[in-house]
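Researcher: Please generate the 3D structure of the following complex. Treat every line as part of one assembly.
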Amino acid sequence: MQITSKFTAAVHILTCIDIFDGQMRVTSDVLSGSTGVNAVIVRNVLGQLRTAGIVETRQGSGGAHLAKALDEITLYDIYKAVDCVDDEGLFHFHENPNVECPVGRNIHKAMDGRLEAAQEALENELKSTTLAQVVADTRKIIEEE
Amino acid sequence: MQITSKFTAAVHILTCIDIFDGQMRVTSDVLSGSTGVNAVIVRNVLGQLRTAGIVETRQGSGGAHLAKALDEITLYDIYKAVDCVDDEGLFHFHENPNVECPVGRNIHKAMDGRLEAAQEALENELKSTTLAQVVADTRKIIEEE
DNA sequence: AAAGTTGTAACTTCGCTTGTTTCAACTTTC
DNA sequence: GAAAGTTGAAACAAGCGAAGTTACAACTTT
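Model: Done. Output below.
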């Protein structure tokens, strides 16, 4: 099992927008070309990022722009925006533990806190990284090529 | 996307083995009854846990037993045993970034370290929790019922 | 008015997770 | 040693979600 590639695609998309905005009109077609992700999927991702207040797009005119400063966008913001995990959480509990069994009816309670803590550890790490860092690294690697 | 329920099922299974071993023969049927998970799946999970050196099972005789002390089994050991994530890692990178594009051919390098750090944060949290803690909590909740 | 772009819905494809069926190999018990 | 119960494993089916695809209305710019 893996976290949807929409997440890495979204980071890629935002990095492109930052780097190419001003030089060209960054349309969903351009972004599809760079990411290798279908243009409709790109537009879906852009839609989710727009809902989250991370980018600005408009029908007709074409070209996406960042709606926030790079260092105000964390990887967690992006991860949340593209719905990597739903309300159920990262871990999928087996669905029919037997309530007739003392373990079956209590295992959920015994585990939930620990599963949440693990998920939180992941998310805190994502919160501590900003898009500014990723873009800076990308620019640096490009310059060193 | 979610981490396979085999993980929580495995923890449930191990908890049952610890609590019921001695009182009854803890067969895959018994475990299937408590977890609500198909008995064949239970046997698969037990097989993975056996490969990892966490439980002992034998053909014919029936009944699983723990192969280690409770406090020597971490949630991470179980998570690894049941193959929650493969070698690719927890995050799924979009597969065809365009190497003609400076961002496309470098985004992987720019992100990989940070994705690994996030995954590690999750796994470290799982490493810090032992089955002993989960079983202790489960017993406590049962007593308080 | 024409051309290009976004937003969205409906459908398809593919792979993964879980369940199911089946059966050989093994152990215990009578 | 035969019967009953259990494990291990393979093969197949069903269901679900991710990603791609097609199609088109709404919008902007020229």
